[in-house]
Amino acid sequence: MEQQNQYVKQFPELMKGKTVMYVHGFGSSGQSGTVTRLRTILPNAKVIAPDLPVHPEEAQALLKELCETEKPDLILGTSMGGMYTEQLYGFDRICMNPALCIADTMQSHGLTGTQTFQNPRLDGVQQFYVDKAMVKEYRLASEQRFSGLEALSDEELEKEKRRVYGLFGDKDDIVDTFDLFREHYPLATHFHGEHRMDDRSFMHSVVPVIRWIDDQQENRQRPIIYIGIETLCDAYNKPTSSSQKAVRMLIENYQVFFVCEDDYPTENRYGQWLEEYINVPAWRHTIYTQRRDLLYGDYLISKKKEGDTMATLLEFGSDTFKTWEDIIEYFSRLGGQ
Questions:
Q1: What are the chain's domains?
Q2: 266-269-272-277 Cα dihedral, nearest 10 degrees
Q3: pLDDT digits (tens, 9 = 90+) for 111-169
Q4: pTM (2 decimals)?
Q5: What DSSP state is assigned to residue 170?
């Protein structure tokens, strides 16, 4: 069984020379495990992670000040931090399990009375007290959600909606604001994980989104790989040996799309299979077509003999590409080309 720390790796080119701001959750600090992950994954980015004041009005003021002075290229926020992050309009943002109804969450999960910070804080304070007045403060802060969208023109609104991603754990038993978020922002999906992310869920769900944002900011065009769904699942509808390993490797250097042939993409079994076994990397990267020969890109990995194609065909199961390990070796030699 893999250990969690084996999932985390460095990506020196990802967000290189850019500023990334992390907004922590309730009762946490800028010294959280997520900050450690970010600094490991993005060694050439400037990662800033302030200890937020306990009072929300002070926290919001600090975040707005940092946005003005640091001008972050990307803001990520978890839970309560996800609520704050949504309100930092005009920046590319990722809201992870955002607690958009934080006061209700505090009351339903016993986050009142004396609380101990989950992580060390720079000021050395270890505990704080939450009374009814502070709960009211958080309720007022949460009610500001989406308020900045109202003043935007139609054009500005559409642009803003495309700058915000929402990632929601499918096993989160603390916060469930997916539907509320999705009413205002279209870029929302579920990942496999709980409210508090571990190394695996962060690498498999957040890092691909960071890569998409970085590519968009840089207008970077990666070589395109199309993967036929039949190469990924075996006769028992389980992942083919090393297929998930290959996908994780390929998305680091390529724009990867998954190709299905079902006529009803919202209800088909292949879409459900991709959501279960590939998850976030397949989100908005799945194509439904009966004509793979018309797919314009660099590589097509397929079990089917496609005839003339507009991409270099790698025939999965052939003598050259009998397994996914053969595919991995092939692309390892190409070095991202």
A1: 4-218 (3.40.50.1820), 224-334 (3.40.50.1000)
A2: -150
A3: 999 999 999 999 999 999 999 999 999 999 999 999 999 999 999 999 999 999 999 99
A4: 0.94
A5: T
Helix, strand, coil shares of the chain as percentages rounded to 5? 35, 20, 45
Take residue 25 and report the two structure tokens written for it. Answer: 């959750």
Helices (H), the chain: 33-41, 56-70, 80-86, 102-108, 132-142, 154-161, 178-182, 199-201, 207-218, 243-250, 269-277, 324-334
> Which tokens belong to 151?
């003043």
Closest to 257 measured CA to CA, from 304, 294, 299, 217: 299
Distance between alpha carbon 109 and the CA centroid of its chain, in Å? 26
Q: pLDDT tens digits, residue range 278-312?
A: 999 999 999 998 889 889 999 999 997 767 788 99
CB 245 within 8 A of CB 328: yes
CB of 334 closer than 8 Å to CB of 328 = no
Per residue in 299-308, pLDDT tens? Answer: 999 997 767 7
Question: How far, CA to CA in Å, does 2 sit from each of 8, 56, 200, 275, 326?
Answer: 12, 39, 10, 22, 22
d(CA 47, CA 119): 17
